[in-house]
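Q: Got a minute? One more chain.
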Amino acid sequence: MFSNRKRQPDQLRSFRFFGPDDLRSFGHRSRQKQSGYASAEFEGKPIVAILNTGNDLISCHSHFRQRVDDVKRGVWQAGGFPVEVPVIGLSETFMKPTSMFYRNLLAMEAEEVLRAHPIDAAVLMGGCDKTIPALLMGALSADVPSIVMPGGPMNRTKWRGESLGSGSDVWKYWAERGAGRVSCDAWCELEDHIAPSAGHCMTMGTASTMTSIAEAMGMSLPGSASIPATHSSHTRMAASTGRQAVELAWHDVRPGQIMTKDAFDNAIVTLMAIGGSTNAMVHLMALAGRAQIPLTLERFDELSQTTPVLANVRPAGTFVMEDFFDAGGLRGLMSQIVPLLNTDALSVAGGTLGEAIEGAEVYDPDVIRSVDDPICMNNSLAVLRGNLCPDGAIIKPPAADEKLQQHTGPAVVFSDYADLKARIDDPLLNITADHVIVLQNAGPIGAPGIPEWGMLPIPRALLEQGIRDMVRISDARMSGTSYGTCVLHVSPESAVGGPLALVRDGDIIKLDVAGRSLQIDVTDEDLAKRRSQWTPPPKRYTRGYGHLLEQEITQACDGCDFRFLQSDGSQTPEPDIY
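A: Always. Here it is, folded:
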């Protein structure tokens, strides 16, 4: 159990709001009674905030209304007082220009909600891609005892006898439609099957990657990340999470005590073993900045080269998350890589990571492979360096065509996404399969918000010839459900004058994944001359949140957090007046 000594009721943070015999506390108590609660229900008990990212425009969280009640049940059972606090839901589907544009806004909201209210512990309800990292960022900065309740993946599904993976098969069938092999009627029919239930994508996209990482870091209950959203175990897990939040409050176990350097290494090793999303690298860099943990892209590459990919789950594998759950889930997978993990790292469950995975088994060795029979021996993700990406770029080798991982070809350049959409199918471009498609101005500032544009479309003429992959380079991100030889997160981005902004049609680009290199065959002198002629794009925003983002966002290599939100070692003061 926790080493922190159990606190007395008058040591709870909420006691400062409700306990004293003064006018302020009179107001707090009377307003709580206004809601119909008696003193005995909330005084002297840990107050547990349930940060709910559900709303009617985030379908992945459509079951969260019920899960709030489940969490509340657990909090009541453990002798706590639950309060639901709705926060922004970051819908991958509907938020424009991209949900990533608003990740830091949710992180700010979560931090300030926890700091401003009489909260002793928090349950962080998230799932859809950006919600988990944003909630963790906010909770880590506020450093209030917190636990993640992962939303869970949706059910497995089929269409016309074929197993479907949300996201991954959208790209697949869209390409087939572009090639003229899927009719309009069939495409419309696919809409009815691709997302069959509540829950986030059932592939190993960013959502399942980040919930798995939260569990690997010790921030959620063991086994919680893999449970499908509609499974009865998910309801029971939510109640257990509520009960554990009360324990965290009594023992004052804070995120900063859990999310240590060892926990970050466990997260990275797990990321590689599950064949997880490239997006996780951006989020982990942001979290490390909040935790003052020194973390570099090279650490990801280092651990990638020693970690086998064991999860045979789309897009890198064959199966979906419900199969992964049935096969033993994340605990089963981590039991296969114990020597690679820091098993003494602490968990919000009250023990260590080693204790959390003790006794775990794998029930289907095809879904969760052994280290002797991996999907691939290593290199789940790779970090590239070179004169085209001096601060780094990312590629996911298992999702890329092996033949393209060492490739030299001429660039065909698109100045922004609108230009790409307008010209990608123009026959006058004469794009061949050997060309390298380059998209500029799709990064944190240039897009803005570094959207998931990185899986650049293949020209229709090449699709009709049967081409399904090409080397594609951008300063954008890629959906965790995507695949292909896509170089992402090129840093510095085009909009701040990174070398990507200087690429011209016909420049020869050399990609060497094994050598971790991305080079443009242009001399330093020519690049300097081009830079002297380059002018930055005009600023988009003169006010509001967009203006704040343009002024403060860091590059992908640093996590795309706001500079002023990263930890500087000082402690943000608690409010003086309660």
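A: The longest strand covers residues 406-414.
Q: Perfect, thanks.
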